[in-house]
Amino acid sequence: MAVAVEKLITSDILKPGRYLGNERLAVHKAWDTTAIRWVLTYPEVYEVGASNLGHIILYNILNAQPRQLCDRAYLPGKDLAAKLRETNTPLFAVESKRSLTEFDILGFSLSYELGATNILEMLDLAGIPLTWRERQRSREAEQQVGKGEITNLQSQFPLIFAGGQTATSNPEPYADFFDFIALGDGEELLPEIGLVLEEGKQAGLSREEILLDLAQIPGVYVPQFYDMAEDGSVHPRRSDVPKRILRRVATPIPAYSIGLVPYVETVHDRLTIEIRRGCTRGCRFCQPGMLTRPARDVEPDKVVEAIEQGMRATGYNEFSLLSLSCSDYLSLPAVGMEIKNRLKNENISLTLPSQRVDRFDENIANILGGTRQGGLTFAPEAGTQRMRDIVNKGLTNEELLRGVKTAWEQGWDRIKLYFMIGLPGETDADVLGIAETVSWLQRECRGKGRKALNFNLTISNFTPKPHTPFQWHSVSTTEFKRKQNLLRQEFRRIKGVKVNFTDVRISAMEDFVGRGDRNLGKVVRRAWELGAGMDSWYENLDQAFSAWGSAIAQADLDWKYRQVENGEWNLFHAQDQKRSGDAENTQLLTPNSPLPTPHSLDTPLPWDHIDTGIDKNWLKEDLQRALEAAIVPDCSFEGCSHCGVCGTDFGHNIVIESPAIPKFAGEFVPNTTKAQRLRVWFGKQGNMALVSHLDLIRLFDRVVRRASLPIAFTGGFHPMPRISVATALALGATSSGEIADFELTAPVAVDTFREQLVQEMPTDIPIYNVEQIDLKTPAATQLLETAEYLITVAALEEVTPIQWQEWIDTIKAKDELWYEHTTKSGKSQFINLRDRLFELELVETHKNIAESISVIRYVGSYRQDGFLLRPEQILFMLSTVASGEFQLLHIHRNRLILGV
Q: What is the pLDDT of residues 409-452, one digit of tens each?
């Protein structure tokens, strides 16, 4: 049964459009005709989750399965979460509005070490016990009170699982909370899980029997079938589950990336298409690079087809190509140029994530951006050649300069650079080398008539990750702070550089949790109870750090956290001591000697039972190579590095040679021709009343693109479509009289225009009328004179219809009703509201138990020079003549009236 959300999702909460579930390309399948019902949840606010590519892909794939349904849920804002708790309403899925407990399976994406607190928040809001043991006890208690054996997935609580990079890397700190973990790529794994659940549900299997069946699927880890040993390692507690659980690998399918066009602006408000999955560069700090091997290129033709279809289907004006290293996709220049040529008349821009500076050349520069050049991000990671060799970055100073200089010569005046401090083997000279490198790049990129090259720097603290050669390393927080101060002093002398540092406290927490064992489950839970949540957001850092610190202390694990804070796994520090000549107490470390204690590399680790394909012995050997600053080549383009991945379980690298780069067909030239002007009268009804004015403007832009209407553009640096909405409507208000002007570059029959517009518009934005107007006619926003409203007003005491009418008549009889208005500059001025009121009538009245309600129609001034009458000012008039209090329940704008 759907949750009654009408009184929860209202205009008084922040961005109510987050929770509507009515996005374009959302899939609504019939509840009663499906056998397995999924909810994919992203434990972040909607703007982050709805634009996550993995979330979109898996949502589309699951809804493509027969007899399976997939809905979505997101972490609600604090305001809605408070409403849910106050009204005892469970958290719901956004499309069906059903409680999460009604579904068969509930999946969370866990991509950040401290993100599990958000998951616990969502489970609590849904009324679901937090741990698998508590859910099991709840089922057993239900059986004991006579409800019989539970034989299907819907009996009480759905199966709870997690996937994502953090869950795949080291699931142990979170093992208490999930029935199972999905390891690796989900495109093939999740449909297999769905089939097993469907068969188990039909057969009436118990929960444990279904989980045992799931445990037989490669890539499914069921923590309750495994025990933790005293040393933190994990072993099966029964013989019919695998000792090590395989990470799943899938081939990217770009077509599944097309979907979910939100009405609310998201953090990645564009079409995103994956061009390459996996990275074999072998950067020793990089967990994604180790966890996504082998590298798999997508066929260039499929990428081009997906982008062209996606842009037509979504109406976005920007697309992004996604990969851990886009520049290693050899077809990037060819694909980018092909798309740029095909869409050259549509004002489309291409953006890329951080890319390899050594592969940045004129071909890549030519495909970036559109009419407005986008930002450019490179990640040198370290400031000296020695450090880049230690981390196996595979980047020389010459390559760094060549890439940056190419960008500068191609017109970029500001570039973003990523660096890290606290890397293994780092000295103060390496830290200061970051500032020296930036200064050197600025000196080399100077020329007459050009702005000086500016940099935005992000300097993060190295956090060791499982399944990387540096998983045995650690850095003290004191050292991080000292090195940050060194850089702050250096950058004071360098102009044109903006530097951002990562908070040291959160880095230590990420390290502590990310490399922890099952004992940390109680810490995660206690941190959530103490208020941790949204820990990746800057404004929550102090609260998060306090909560995590208290949780660690209460779990008697503060001694272990101090080990992380003190950097007691720092093998390189031990090596430096030996090299400094302290020969009496230590012996020189050589390539053949064992690495230093206190933590032997042979000690079992909490994540050793996760088979990522990377041989642990290879990680040890690569750590030794790091000590020697030895480079390992990229096995996608040079010889095999023998990491252990390639084979039948994980496949092999797939590198596709680039097709010829098409000839550049020219930049987009905005067509500013104004051949026709159409005026459209439209409404804003139902859920669309909760979509803001700015979001409505974006909607019109996308609708015109999807409808392939020949819209004219403004000129200048950032051409915009010539669509002018007469005026904004208050959030939550409905309307049947809005006006927008469209200017076209070629004449279109009025009926054809209306038909194409209606076809692409949401049903809650009805199109009432379209008229052709003269090109010289002033815009509707300039012609506005008056507006007609219907407002629903509640009196907080019993009022008869006669009293309502008397108050209306009293207002109409007055010549003056003075109102104190505060201007934008803060000055007070008195205005006569009666001068702005032209018509006023009582339409209807009715009573309920608590209040008397009336519907009032009024026509008031609505000039854009500020001479207007707002609905809330009608309440002020009523309060003045009735000496009582009134509440504005709803606003409906009947029509906007234009002058001649």
A: 988 999 999 999 999 889 999 999 999 999 999 999 988 778 88
Cβ atoms of 123 and 130 closer than 8 Å = yes
Q: Where are the alpha helices (DSSP H) in 410-497?
A: 428-444, 477-491
What pLDDT was estimated at residue 355? Answer: 86
Sheet with 105-109, side-by-side order of all strands = 68-74, 36-42, 105-109, 159-163, 180-182, 220-221
Nearest to 372 by CA among 714, 717, 664: 717
Q: What is the SS3 assignment for 829? A: strand
Provide the pairing of β-strand 68-74 with 105-109: unpaired
Is the bond into 294 cis (omega within 30 degrees of 0)? yes
C-alpha–C-alpha distance, residues 788 and 765, integer Å: 19
Measured CA to CA, the distance from residue 462 to residue 54 in angstroms comes to 26
**Which 3 state secondary structure label does DSSP give 682?**
strand
Q: What is the pTM of this model?
A: 0.93
Please tell me the total number of residues recorded for the chain in this structure. Answer: 900
> 302, 278, 282: which is closest to 292 by C-alpha?
278
In sequence order, what are the residues at sequence separation of 6 or more whose Cβ sits closer than 8 angstroms to the Cβ of residue 270? 316, 318, 319, 320, 351
Q: Read off the DSSP letter of residue 144.
A: I
Q: Which residues, 6 or more positions from 266, have their beta carbon under 8 angstroms from its beta carbon?
A: 46, 47, 48, 50, 51
Tell me the C-alpha distance between 96 and 81, whole Å.
18
- Please state whether beta strands 828-832 and 318-322 pair in parallel, antiparallel, or not at all (unpaired): unpaired
CB 543 within 8 A of CB 532: yes
Mapping DSSP to helix (H, G, I), strand (E, B) and coil, where does residue 439 land?
Answer: helix
Q: Which residues of the chain have pLDDT under 70?
A: 1, 145-155, 369-373, 535-539, 569-599
DSSP label at residue 384: S
Task: In whole angstroms, give the CA distance from residue 767 to residue 737.
Answer: 10
Q: 470 φ, ψ to 5°?
A: -95, 15
pLDDT tens-digit series, residues 549-574: 999 999 998 888 888 888 775 554 44
Terminal CA-CA length for the chain? 53
What is the residue type of 255? A
Phi-psi region of 375 (alpha: psi -120 to 50; beta: other; left: phi over 0): beta
* Residue 171 pLDDT: 98
CA distance 397 to 382: 11
Burial 659-692 (b: 16+ CB within 10 A, else e): eebbeeeeebebbeeeebbbbbbbbbbebbbbbb
